[in-house]
From TrEMBL:
PANTHER family: LINALOOL DEHYDRATASE_ISOMERASE DOMAIN-CONTAINING PROTEIN. Pfam families: DUF2264. InterPro entries: DUF2264_N, UCP014753. This is DUF2264 domain-containing protein.
Amino acid sequence: MSSLSAVPEDRRLSPVTGWTRDHWVAAADDLLLAVRPWATPGFGRIDLPGEPARAGWVCDGLEGFARTFLTAAFRVAGCGGDDPHDHLGNYRRGLLAGTATPGADDAESWPVIRGFREGGQPIVESASIALGLDLTREWLWDSLSGDEQDQVEAWLREALRHEPAPNNWYLFPMAVASFLTGAGRGDAETERAVDRALELLEGWYRGEGWYTDGDGRMFDHYVGWAMHLYPVLFTHLRGEGADPELGKRFGVRLREFLGTFALTFDGNGAPLHQGRSLTYRFAAVSSVAVGAVTGATPWSPGVSRSILSGAVKYFTDRGAARDGVHTRGWHGPHPATVQPYSGPASPYWCSKAFSALLAGPDHPLWTATEEPVPAAGPAATVPVAPAGWLVQTTPDGLVRVHNHGSDHHRPGHPAEPDPLYARLAYSTRTGPTSARNVAENTVTLTHRGQEGVRVSFENAGTGPGWAASRHHPRFAATELPQARVLSLVLARGAWEVRVFGGGALPVGTPLTVTGWALAAAGPAGLEQAVEGTSITLGDGELRSHLRAVAGFDRADLVRAPAGTAYGAWALVPRLRGATGPGPAVVLAALTAADPGPAPVVEVEGGRVTATFADGVQGRTSLDGEVPRVSW
């Protein structure tokens, strides 16, 4: 029996999840004890089973050590040094074994740190090791001899001397430099690493608490678990040694970020299924955790704990681990969710969520009564202008995010559309289809027999109840500059009015729009109905609706045999038609409850008016370069 299963629920204190702080401590212990059998004799590496990442199995073993060490650090530091399983004893041995002869061909040695163009994954892992040492300094670092400290420092310092990837990676040398400075080993080199990271961070700030993960439009979970987590912990751990103005700035930004980001967690605990590295799973709540620990949050302790415990419990209950070892995927193994840089130990970036344990047992985060998460409240649509997102929630707790700003493309670096970024919308209960299957939630033009896909798009405006973007469709890896598609959504309640306009393509150009895909174990698990140009799809819990309003004359359901992260086999609702003199319009909805009456939509020239069931009207015009929307 795991220690987690032995902890009783407390539905009085935690009416939403039943979890208390004891569950978190037990979950951390279970995670750490489950990986021990896979450690090398000296504990220098933890070689979990599975295919290696592109960095190779030696680096994967370092990753297993570094990322689980971070869990151990949060667990022991959060419990004031209490360590009944001797977690730190093992990691102390491994720290010395791994740094004794870096690069040696043996079972324990860690790879030498190099730049990102030379296989620089150890730079990433150096940050977890440095942060873990920072958190446990009085129990681990201070127990090392001077020579042993020099040995560890020599390995860590290489992270300051090599080029990181041009994104959140610059925060990793900052974490190393911060630890060395706090340990009395700071110098001009550590100062430069911190200054460089802070300068880049300012350039990536886009307002309202949101950063982009490098140049371009890179909005995903990295905003929370990297761009906020490291700077906030940097000032928190340095205490009086940190610039107070810096701490205030990062705190204000985190508070503002959480004001919208917290809305993206489902009432059932699930994070938004969008963006890369989703195999890190409940790492998604790490910014909520550090916000609660430092007081940089707009949410009450009861709301924060519901989000935190809800996410960890969500994955624990759905089999994210096999025999206690976390798999690469979402609910369980799912190759399409995983990037080439992810190895068997990559999922253990989930360790960052355990930063919640830095709030001691008497902290309000653990003593307050849980409250429902924001998404479980009244229906709402909240714009996130910096990211080009529109967050849509309904009382059933389901969250949809309409994506009109995050394409994960760096300027001047065209790429194929990524299913985790290129879609018109994402949710907390559905996932994108495979890149080799038909795409859900997208718009496609067909020109000379070739499909033009949505890629490298830019935000065309975001406001209350609406968001829009424009893109040049890419045909066979070539963009046609003269072709342009403007996509806009009006959302209210559970319904979405999706509007598509464009230019420079002849009237009659074939046009395809797809809606929300649903997945199941096989075809028998999906209910389907197509009546004229109206499609309804169900999986027993969710309903996906797609209805033509203007511009479409055919409807069908397309098979996606590779499924999604939520099921092995999927269906995608599809409408087909052609461009006309005015915009093409569809109605869509993804619901776990009755969506209510659909809005009545009128199209006149380039103007679209949607009258929703409560009488509220949304109006938009696509006549100009910038869409005009009023309510």
